[in-house]
Amino acid sequence: MAGKKLPGVLILDIGGTHGVLEDIAALLKKHFCLITMKEFLENKREMSKKIQSIFVFECRPTINQELLESLPNLKVIGNSGVGVDHLDLKMIASFGVKVTNTPHAVADSTADMGMALMLASARRLVEGNVLNFSSS
């Protein structure tokens, strides 16, 4: 994409406790100009024009009316999780913004964990594990 300006995507941060994982940030950087919430708040006037997307990771950043009003070129909010209960879809739609999510991203992992928990419960594995360690 040499010579072409990448669209801006707002993220909370990279790394840390609540930021986007560094591997995901590296992937996003191939297609977007990453703008952290700190950068946005420090220079709202300039950054608000660049941001066309928000990447929501672990329900952050919080999407509210004030944020949406400050982003005139926002087109889409990409949610990295399955559910969108933390987003006010009606309010977001009133700004003409679309919302995406990943509904099947963890379906296999969730099913695997569910089966493991059912088998562990049926076979009393946790109790057996505790008994083995306590008798040592």
TrEMBL record:
Listed SUPFAM superfamilies: Formate/glycerate dehydrogenase catalytic domain-like
Domain D-isomer specific 2-hydroxyacid dehydrogenase catalytic, chain residue ranges per copy: 22-114
Domain of life, source organism: Eukaryota
Position of the signal peptide: none
Keywords: Oxidoreductase
GO-annotated molecular function: glyoxylate reductase (NADPH) activity; hydroxypyruvate reductase [NAD(P)H] activity; NAD binding
Pfam families according to UniProt: 2-Hacid_dh
GO cellular component: cytosol
PANTHER family: 2-HYDROXYACID DEHYDROGENASE-RELATED, 2-KETOGLUCONATE REDUCTASE
Record-given protein name: HPPR reductase
Organism expressing this protein natively: Centropus unirufus
Lineage of origin: Eukaryota, Metazoa, Chordata, Craniata, Vertebrata
